[in-house]
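WARN no homologs supplied; continuing
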Amino acid sequence: MDILRSRTLAWTAHARAKMNFYRLSEGRVRRVLHAPKRVEEGVAPRTIALMQPASMKTATTWAQEIWVMVQDAGSKRKVISAWRYPGVTKPRAVLQMMQKEYREYAKEIPKEKPAASEFLTRPVTKNKRRRLYTHDFNKPVV
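OK structure emitted
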């Protein structure tokens, strides 16, 4: 998701209700969107969560955080939810999560190379635009 590109905002009813409950204005939510202190992957699929401290005690400490969850849908950015967290959350280790997922993915990849005879069974054509098909002519060769 491209965070920096400005888009028109669409507000869900859930986001409006949470903004009312936590006493957050549209301007405050926009401020979080335009100048987040931290950006993380959202809990819902294809979403991102942006955080900004509610008020800074010093340059590195604060008492509350304001979170906004958004989802990009075409040219619009949909605000899914907004909430106020009474405390300081620890940043999620995104790099460690990515490394863990890569290791799991690497385990699934077969380590054996395909046999040379597998490549010889494919039909050869001169036209490169036409897709090559296996001998059963039902599924394309990838």
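The CA atoms of residues 42 and 120 lie 46 Å apart.
OK
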